[in-house]
Amino acid sequence: MDYREFEEKLGHRFHNKKYLITALTHSSYANEAKGKEESNERLEFLGDSVLGFVVADYLFKNYTQFPEGDLTKNRAALVCEKACCGFAKQIDLGNYLRLSHGEQNSGGRTRSSILADAFEAVIAAIYLDAGMEEARKFILRFVLPMLKAHKPKAFKDYKTALQEIIQQNPEEHLEYVLTGESGPDHDKHFTVEVHLNSNVIGKGGGRSKKEAEQQAAREALELMGY
Amino acid sequence: MDYREFEEKLGHRFHNKKYLITALTHSSYANEAKGKEESNERLEFLGDSVLGFVVADYLFKNYTQFPEGDLTKNRAALVCEKACCGFAKQIDLGNYLRLSHGEQNSGGRTRSSILADAFEAVIAAIYLDAGMEEARKFILRFVLPMLKAHKPKAFKDYKTALQEIIQQNPEEHLEYVLTGESGPDHDKHFTVEVHLNSNVIGKGGGRSKKEAEQQAAREALELMGY
Lengths: 226, 226
What we know:
Strand content of chain A: 5-15%
GO molecular function, one term (chains A, B): ribonuclease III activity
Cofactor (chains A, B): Mg(2+)
EC number (chains A, B): 3.1.26.3
Largest sheet of chain A: 3 strands, antiparallel
Structural class of chain A: mainly alpha
Number of strands of chain A: 3
Oligomer: homodimer
Order of helices and strands of chain A: HHHHHHHHHHHEEEH
Distance between the termini of chain A: 51 Å
Binding site for Mg(2+) (chains A, B): 44, 117, 120
Subunit structure (chains A, B): Homodimer.
Number of helices of chain A: 12
């Protein structure tokens, strides 16, 4: 296997090739070797946490206006199997995997779960070989273009979205009306209606007025087909 | 609020006190302050990933015989709400929280979810203030004693456990018998029986013989009341 070629695609030359080889070893191959080869499963465990941390850190520091819920959603989209499989394909990871014959013949080189897991294992391999900063650089090489392409949105901010739609017509008037408030101080529940001129176009509830308004705006957007 | 006292419990003196104060600010307090105070929710998001990474890294490097499944289970036990709440109590975190009056009056200072979230936020505060190595030191101060007390086991190894029980009586003989094998190469399924002398005491199935044997041993242990 020409690991040199793959290292060039990774942009990282391994001091300890064992990390790289293990990262590329699927459990089907390790099983066939009956304990003589280690599979990439432990590396995948570690790589998953390195990826989660690097992406959380990046989002936290660069999307300072995002509330926690939006950070969580955006991170989930960047570290999921689909995303990792896409990253793996960018470096032709499938070509370099060590698979059992059976797995190879049944399309293992293009199977999403195998590619995503191996991508995480490669992250761990780089982290173990060269430290967190190298791993971070490697991860951001894939994550940044995806962030650029998708322009992560503060998912939650339905009020702003609704406002932007409505104000295209200056005669329309949007208003949020508090219709209920219940529960003790520490466990309040608010209900809110959003009115367009004098029509109710959405209702929402939540633990704060702000949350209830967001929910109402969300319902309005849904009703309007957004 | 005497943050100096709390910093002593943390073992970290903050360069930027804002991180510490935000980590201690519950959303109920921030909501009451109507946007003038930031809650600890974003920090909790970041702290959760720092904690997950540090624990994964530690387990990976110190439990080199553990397969991925055991690493995952042990990590889950160390980063769960129950564990984090326990860590928070060790540093009297509840006493230093900024809560709304309502939350305070309804026992917020001892509520498990509030304490666990704030503990994760404190981790992020230390990470942002002083870097990963400080955060790692802080986390391991809580995690290591817990690992020592619980002696994490390779949960999966039922065969070893069964063997140790059986060999207490040298006349007993344990044997694993392959009873079935089906499916194409890449998706095989094996079934195994474990025999004690000539009695079947457990049956198991899995994608490899080893896995099927483990499952059979597990069933035997359960039948024997372990």
